[in-house]
């Protein structure tokens, strides 16, 4: 693809006819990359199969785990096979949708037909690319090129003059804080669109619930959507929680994660058997962006309002899937967290910019921001407030969060003071200084890295938390910005993963939280990798935790003058001030000979130019035939 961000017409966040053409070309390129995913596969174990009945239909849930052999399979290093929520996969000749994937190894697929798996066998897991959905996005963009007068098009092009808000008065729930009330009020009064910024833990689901109640109370039909199944189910669960809205007026289209939102199970309409009369009677319809088209019969059959949750992580074409079927829209998200996921990470930056971020820049008069967080320890929240959200006014931690009880951990079984620091929940930030060597490996889009000594330190930390002081493994998450490091940790930490510890990339863990988060940074300098050019990566990593953040990294990563180094420097200072800094080799973990031998093999093969050329030659032959 041609990359040129210097054209005058492309400098602004607003779209144009030329940009739409380039978006269409990019989507065509994305289709090619998606097709390549079918060339790779993983082997997986079947952990369990459960069935659940919805009306006259039965859904089958399969819990799977990637086999160890597949995790160390070389292809994963070059052309990673990525498992994410909302993606479809083929296994044993059946297609299932991924509805849960908090760990890089364990995931859940939902099937609409009876499954027949042998628990003693390994099965091939293959990706089913969403080509039809991409084609639908292309058609919407093509229609935008043709149409001349259209409110949505003028909004996208930055030529729209927002309509004034109505002066209606609403009795908003008194339990909401002031910023939540203001955001809800503006969204209710808007006649076209509103953009609500919700930093981590600020109660986005709470205001979505309030908006749904108020919109439906005045007779407006709501489409509640997101690119994530889990986000929709959480929101619907909140809507139904206090029984204010009649359940018969709410439905869920398609297959959501019913383990999370059990109460909406009877309200689900399977995607393949939608009845128009059923949908038309519903005031609130929950659907993924990809399935939004199923909720309307035609261009005139529009919702009064669409609410898009996690809008900061959806591409422009993805978001348009829902916006074209509503009279007005509310975008709720956070462009200070990670941007949309695209197959080609080298595409032009403006393409990777979400519609949420574009409209936030173009229409400042349409802003609302939630500024009180209820998730993180105050000291951790202060780090992101000062470094990420400072130019937006920062975020506040209410007194109720400051006074909440911290989980007690009995440290009497530990002898060393360094070990007690790691498990002491009254020390919110720890920094384990690491002396290991960063090892790089070539990948399809560039290179990835790992640090064996950091893996060994993480392993020792988990031994202390899980084995020594008996912290619930399901309350712990281990993250890294590098997939090579995650793949290595999965092999080394398998016993902890089986107990419930989540091990994943920072990108894939956005939207989740744990009581304790351990972050393995791997690199010694931010300049070592382009991945650190975007400080939103650190924002997501830091804000996944509720009580304790443990950073495993060489202190040199905090020594430069760039934005990443400054944030890492503040984390390091907070750790030192609270007594949570551990000098190099303080934990003195034993060497893991297995992962070190694997690293030697990886470097021997992966860094050999002859091998890479052989792989490229195979790819060319595959294209030819």
Automatic annotation (TrEMBL):
Residues 175-269, 276-342 form the DNA2/NAM7 helicase helicase domain. Keywords: ATP-binding, Helicase, Hydrolase, Nucleotide-binding. Residues 352-555 form the DNA2/NAM7 helicase-like C-terminal domain. It comes from the Archaea. CDD domains: SF1_C_Upf1. GO terms for molecular function: 5'-3' DNA helicase activity; ATP binding; hydrolase activity. Belongs to the DNA2/NAM7 helicase family. This is AAA family ATPase. It comes from Methanosarcina mazei (Methanosarcina frisia). The lineage of its organism: Archaea, Methanobacteriati, Methanobacteriota, Stenosarchaea group, Methanomicrobia.
């Amino acid at each position: 693809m041609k990359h040129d961000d210097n054209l005058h017409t492309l400098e602004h966040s607003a779209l144009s006819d030329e940009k739409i053409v380039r978006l269409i070309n990019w989507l065509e390129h994305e289709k090619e990359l998606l097709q390549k995913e079918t060339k790779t596969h993983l082997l997986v174990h079947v952990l369990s199969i459960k069935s659940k009945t919805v009306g006259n239909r039965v859904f089958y849930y399969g819990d799977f785990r990637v086999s160890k052999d597949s995790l160390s399979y070389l292809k994963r290093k070059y052309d990673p096979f990525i498992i994410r929520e909302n993606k479809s996969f083929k296994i044993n000749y059946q297609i299932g949708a991924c509805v849960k994937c908090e760990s890089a190894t364990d995931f859940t697929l939902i099937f609409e037909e009876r499954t027949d798996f042998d628990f003693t066998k390994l099965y091939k897991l293959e990706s089913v690319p969403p080509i039809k959905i991409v084609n639908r996005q292309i058609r919407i963009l093509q229609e935008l090129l043709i149409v001349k007068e259209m409110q949505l098009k003028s909004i996208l092009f930055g030529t729209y003059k927002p309509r004034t808000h109505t002066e209606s008065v609403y009795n908003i729930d008194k339990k909401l804080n002031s910023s939540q009330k203001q955001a809800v009020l503006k969204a209710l009064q808007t006649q076209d669109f509103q953009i609500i910024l919700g930093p981590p833990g600020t109660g986005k689901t709470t205001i979505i619930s309030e908006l749904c109640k108020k919109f439906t109370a005045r007779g407006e039909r709501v489409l509640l959507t997101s690119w994530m199944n889990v986000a929709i189910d959480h929101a619907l669960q909140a809507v139904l929680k206090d029984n204010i809205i009649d359940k018969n007026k709410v439905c869920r289209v398609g297959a959501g994660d019913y383990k999370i939102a059990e109460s909406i199970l009877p309200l689900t309409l399977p995607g393949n058997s939608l009845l128009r009369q059923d949908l038309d009677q519903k005031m609130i319809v929950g659907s993924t962006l990809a399935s939004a088209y199923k909720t309307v019969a035609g261009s005139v059959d529009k919702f009064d309002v669409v609410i898009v949750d996690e809008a900061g992580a959806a591409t422009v074409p993805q978001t348009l899937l829902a916006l074209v079927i509503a009279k007005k829209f509310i975008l709720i998200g956070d462009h200070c967290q990670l941007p949309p996921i695209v197959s080609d990470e080298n595409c032009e930056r403006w393409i990777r910019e979400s519609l949420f971020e574009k409209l936030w820049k173009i229409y400042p008069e349409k802003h609302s921001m939630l500024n009180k967080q209820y998730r993180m320890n105050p000291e951790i929240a202060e780090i992101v407030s000062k470094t990420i959200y400072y130019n937006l006014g920062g975020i506040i931690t209410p007194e109720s969060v400051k006074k909440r009880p911290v989980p007690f951990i009995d440290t009497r079984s530990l002898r060393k003071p360094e070990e007690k620091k790691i498990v002491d929940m009254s020390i919110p930030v720890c920094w384990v200084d690491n002396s290991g060597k960063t090892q790089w490996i070539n990948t399809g889009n560039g290179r990835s890295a790992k640090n064996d000594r950091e893996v060994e330190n993480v392993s020792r930390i988990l031994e202390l938390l899980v084995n020594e002081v008996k912290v619930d493994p399901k309350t712990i998450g281990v993250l890294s910005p590098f997939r090579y490091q995650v793949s290595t940790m999965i092999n080394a930490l398998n016993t902890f993963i089986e107990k419930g510890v989540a091990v994943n990339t920072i990108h894939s863990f956005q939207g989740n939280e744990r009581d304790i988060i351990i972050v393995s940074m791997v690199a010694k300098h931010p300049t070592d990798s382009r991945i650190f050019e975007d400080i939103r990566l650190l924002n997501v990593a830091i804000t996944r935790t509720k009580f304790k953040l443990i950073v495993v990294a060489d202190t040199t990563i905090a020594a430069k003058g760039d934005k990443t180094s400054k944030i890492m420097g503040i984390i390091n200072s907070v750790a030192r001030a609270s007594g949570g800094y551990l000098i190099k080799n303080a934990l003195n973990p034993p060497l893991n000979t297995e992962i070190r031998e694997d690293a030697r093999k990886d470097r021997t093969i992966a860094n050999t130019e002859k091998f890479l050329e052989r792989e490229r030659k195979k790819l060319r032959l595959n294209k030819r035939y």
